[in-house]
Write a structure and sequence with these properties.
Layout (H helix, E strand, L loop, with lengths): L1 H5 L9 E4 L7 H14 L10 E5 L4 H10 L3 E4 L7
Parallel strand pairs: 1-2, 2-3
Length: 83
């Protein structure tokens, strides 16, 4: 997150793909920190970084939790590559 905080928006990635289960924090916390950074920079809602949650937990409650955290999409593991 620190690198995003220092970078100009033009240097940010086009999308955030974030696992929900991480070693030191969960993906929901990561996204909340990102959204706080965007709000601090006064980035309009329509210009904010799209976020995709990656998880092995994909029931309805997990989807609600991911959406409440601000993820637009939830991908279940394993992710199919379409091939």
């Amino acid at each position: 997150m620190e690198s995003l905080a220092r970078a100009d928006m033009s240097q940010w990635p086009h999308v955030l793909l974030c696992d929900i289960v991480l070693a030191d924090e969960d993906g929901d916390d990561v996204l909340r920190r990102l959204r706080a950074l965007e709000a601090e920079r006064e980035i309009p809602l329509q210009s904010r970084l799209p976020a995709v949650a990656l998880t092995g937990y994909t029931d309805a409650e997990d989807r609600k939790t991911a959406e409440a955290a601000g993820f637009q999409t939830l991908l279940g593991k394993p992710v199919s590559t379409g091939g």
